[in-house]
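Any chance you'd type out a single protein's sequence alongside its tokenized fold?
>
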Amino acid sequence: MKHIEQLNHSIIEFYDKLASWEQSVVKDQEFSLAQTHTIEVLGNHGAMRMKELANRLAITTGTLTVQVDKLVNAGLIERRPHDSDRRSILVQLTASGQAFYRHHNDLHLHLTQDITAKLSKDERETLLKCLLKINVEF
């Protein structure tokens, strides 16, 4: 098998395993994986316009509106006017949303520690450099 094919299969296998792990983490929670991803993006990047958030999640603004409405009703997200653009509305995490984000992020940190435990410090640094370069391509 060519190297690029092995790399392709390994990336797909990793993605499948990560997606499965994420499904197992949220299956007993009241929020869907899509809603959890919305909270993750806001937790990582802060308040943003709906269109920008939809673009980061690769979904339509209509789909996002449904998710945000549910999260607003749950008290995890709030809408507020944009400071400099009166036509725009920003969405941001509430204090409860930030707590949810921190808890979910801690699960990711533990997973990262677990799956990189057998890597040397140099290997972890190389992995980080590679992932940073790959992420720029998306």
About this structure: DSSP finds six helices and three strands in the chain. The two ends are 26 Å apart (CA to CA). The chain has a mean pLDDT of 93. Residues 3-26 form the longest helix (24 residues).
